[in-house]
């Protein structure tokens, strides 16, 4: 899909974006509040009309104002899940689900009713009234309702933002399973980096109504010039890996990734399955020689790609060495505090390492140098 | 109740029965438009709709009489259509009641439509429902209490009008003499017992109606 929108708002905000998104997979739309994420989604859905807009989805032109084309929302084959579920209060869960399904021509239906109910675990909720559902249940109904129109494009506008942490954890696995099943493009708006690290394949970074960066998750999320993403986003990378074996003796699970084999505390994931693994920058240290006789299992040869100074956020660097010790007495982040962040290439996979300035100087680290990445913590994102 | 008072009762019920559906037919699109529009015309239109709440009914009735009368702006329309002039006739009462009771229908409907909000209608649009479909299947059911309040208030208010009816309809027994005018007649003739019968009946009916509307817990007209 490809779109171009320019829309001026009275408050001085202007959305001015030109973007493409792959034909399948989740494109995470990320940016701070007020960066235009929701406005972009509303333009795509036709709920806002950008005067010179252009939008093409899967070969169909939905909007081309230069040629007088503007399909109203009900003629665009899309599914839209709003931040507030927006269930119809006067209809039961079943009737809510049927609303869009009945309005989708039989020949166009590619999702069976029972299938959507099953995917989102709604069988027991069908006779209920929307008012009797929890926040997470409401949002699951909203997702199934949108899927039942067999959309060519799925738009998710911060579907988890209105939920508490427990409800978020309840619904994320459903979304992850959908991700594997859907063969349509998904635009997923969020201001939570952790959510997108789990779900997105591509990223579209917005700031002040403009596209700041776009591309595959692994590429955009490790661009040092774009970091840090926000106060709640921990510095780190997400790696695609495949489960190769479980080790009963030591209770470990082994996963292959581009840079080698990872050892993790044993996990139930099936052998052969693809998983996402998160490695935080502060859990990666560097060694110039392969460390022998170490307790750390995950050591990978790598090459230094880039070195940058990243301002510390909040108290994240409280355990830093002497170079970062300036502000220990107060909780307020110091604007001057910053730590070197190193981008590594381990056999094609990017890793980030956060080290002290003293180590940077002592080891004479520089781009191009071959090192060993010593990974002390790896977490499976599931 | 004497036979002479059954005529006005019947006439009054007929008037309210004819006026209420017409009020809903006119008031629903008007209230829908007012609840959604960003047009600059919104405020003048709202003011016009609310005028009967503050104007003496005789003012409204007076201008209607001038407008609809034989020499008024619309006076020539009726004979041209082969219709009886609305002045001093039942159709005149209906026209007067429509204008006079309009705020009692538009305001609860507008409030109900506004409280439906934008979200359910936008959701319906993304679920392939066109504008009329959304209105019929989402807006109307979600605003149903507003419709009930509007119909009840429109009906009750039409029952009780006096000034407009007197100005445009006069006081013709069996034609334009409604209950409120019958009370006035009885009092003029010092027939307090008969006046009481009608007045108390209307008082109790109005009280019960308003009780019901308040119990529905919907927005009422802002007088």
In summary, what is this structure?
The complex is a heterodimer of chains A (382) and B (223). Chain A is α+β, with helices and mostly antiparallel strands and 382 residues long.
Question: Which SSEs are present, and which pair or pack?
Answer:
The complex is a heterodimer of chains A (382) and B (223).
Chain A lengths: L1 E7 L5 E7 L4 E6 L6 H9 L8 E4 L2 E5 L4 E2 L7 E4 L11 H10 L10 H7 L15 H13 L5 E5 L7 H17 L3 E6 L2 H7 L2 E6 L2 E7 H4 L15 E12 L4 E6 L2 E6 L8 E7 L3 E4 L10 E14 L26 E9 L2 E6 L2 H6 L7 E6 L3 E2 L2
Parallel strand pairs in A: 3-9, 3-10, 7-8, 8-9
Antiparallel strand pairs in A: 1-2, 1-4, 4-5, 5-6, 10-11, 12-13, 12-15, 13-14, 15-21, 16-20, 17-18, 17-20, 18-19
Chain B lengths: L2 H34 L5 H13 L2 H12 L8 H4 L9 H27 L2 H8 L4 H12 L1 H16 L3 H7 L9 H10 L3 H24 L8
Please tell me the total number of domains of chain A. Answer: 2
Largest sheet of chain B: none
Structural class of chain A: alpha+beta
Radius of gyration of chain B: 19 Å
- Please provide the ordered H/E string of secondary-structure elements of chain B: HHHHHHHHHHH
Oligomer: heterodimer
What is the first-to-last residue Cα distance of chain B? 34 Å
Termini separation of chain A comes to: 29 Å
CATH superfamily of chain B: MetI-like
CATH topology (fold) name of chain B: MetI-like fold
Count the beta strands of chain B: 0
The tally of helices of chain A reads: 8
Average pLDDT rating of chain B: 88
User: What structural class do you assign from the helix and strand content of chain B?
Assistant: mainly alpha
Number of strands of chain A: 21
| CATH class division of the largest domain in chain A | Alpha Beta
Question: Roughly how many Å is the radius of gyration of chain A?
Answer: 23 Å
Return the CATH architecture of the largest domain in chain A: 3-Layer(aba) Sandwich
Q: What percentage of residues of chain A falls in helices of 4 or more residues? A: 10-25%
């Amino acid at each position: 899909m490809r779109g171009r929108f320019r829309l001026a708002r009275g408050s001085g905000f202007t959305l001015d974006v030109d973007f493409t998104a792959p034909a399948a997979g989740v494109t995470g739309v990320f940016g701070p509040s007020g960066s235009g994420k929701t406005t972009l989604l509303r333009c795509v859905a036709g709920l806002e009309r950008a005067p010179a807009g252009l939008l093409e989805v899967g070969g169909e032109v939905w909007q081309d104002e230069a040629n007088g084309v503007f399909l109203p929302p009900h003629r665009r084959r899309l599914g839209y899940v709003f931040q507030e579920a927006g269930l119809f209060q006067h209809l039961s869960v079943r009737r809510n689900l049927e609303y869009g399904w009945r309005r989708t021509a039989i020949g166009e239906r590619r999702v069976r009713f029972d299938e959507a109910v099953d995917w989102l675990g709604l069988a027991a909720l069908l006779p209920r009234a929307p008012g009797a559902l929890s926040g997470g249940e409401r949002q699951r109904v909203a997702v199934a309702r949108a899927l039942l129109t067999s959309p060519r494009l799925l738009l998710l506008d911060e579907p988890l933002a209105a939920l508490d942490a427990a409800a978020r954890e309840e619904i994320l696995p459903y979304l992850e399973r959908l991700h594997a099943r859907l063969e349509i493009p998904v635009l997923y708006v969020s201001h939570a980096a952790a959510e997108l690290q789990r779900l997105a394949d591509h990223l579209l970074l917005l700031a002040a109504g403009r596209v700041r960066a776009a591309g595959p998750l692994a590429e955009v999320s490790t661009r040092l010039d774009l970091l840090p993403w926000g106060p709640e986003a921990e510095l780190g990378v997400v790696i695609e890996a495949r489960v190769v074996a479980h080790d009963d003796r030591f209770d470990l699970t082994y996963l292959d990734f581009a840079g080698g084999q990872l050892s993790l505390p044993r996990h139930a994931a099936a052998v052969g399955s693809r998983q996402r693994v998160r490695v935080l920058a502060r859990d990666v240290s560097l060694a110039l020689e392969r460390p022998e006789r170490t307790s750390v299992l995950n050591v990978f040869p790598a090459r230094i790609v880039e070195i940058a100074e990243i301002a510390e956020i909040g108290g994240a660097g409280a355990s830093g060495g002497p170079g970062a010790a300036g502000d220990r007495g107060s909780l307020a982040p110091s604007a001057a505090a910053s730590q070197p962040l190193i981008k590594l290439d381990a056999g094609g996979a990017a890793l980030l390492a956060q080290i002290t300035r003293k180590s940077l100087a002592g080891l004479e680290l520089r781009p191009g140098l071959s090192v060993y990445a010593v990974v002390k913590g790896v977490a499976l994102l599931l | 109740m004497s036979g002479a008072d059954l005529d006005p009762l019947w006439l009054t019920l007929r008037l309210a029965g004819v006026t209420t559906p017409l009020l809903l037919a006119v008031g629903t699109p008007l209230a829908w438009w007012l609840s959604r529009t960003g047009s600059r015309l919104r405020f003048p239109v709202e003011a016009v709709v609310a005028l009967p709440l503050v104007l003496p009914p005789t003012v409204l009735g007076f201008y209607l009489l001038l407008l609809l009368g034989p020499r008024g702006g619309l006076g020539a329309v009726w004979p041209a259509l082969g219709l009886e002039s609305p002045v001093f006739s039942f159709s005149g009462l209906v026209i007067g009641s429509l204008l006079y009771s309009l705020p009692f229908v538009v305001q609860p409907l507008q409030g109900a439509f506004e409280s439906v909000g934008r979200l359910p209608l936008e959701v319906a649009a993304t679920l392939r429902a066109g504008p009329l479909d959304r209105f019929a299947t989402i807006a109307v059911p979600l605003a149903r209490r507003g419709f009930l309040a509007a119909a009840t208030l429109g009906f009750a208010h039409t029952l009780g009008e006096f000034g407009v009816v007197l100005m445009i309809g006069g006081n013709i027994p069996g034609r334009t003499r409604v209950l409120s005018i019958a009370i006035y007649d009885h009092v003029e003739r010092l027939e307090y017992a008969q006046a009481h019968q009608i007045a108390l009946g209307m008082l109790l009916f109005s009280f019960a109606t308003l009780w019901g509307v308040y119990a529905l817990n919907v927005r009422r007209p802002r007088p």
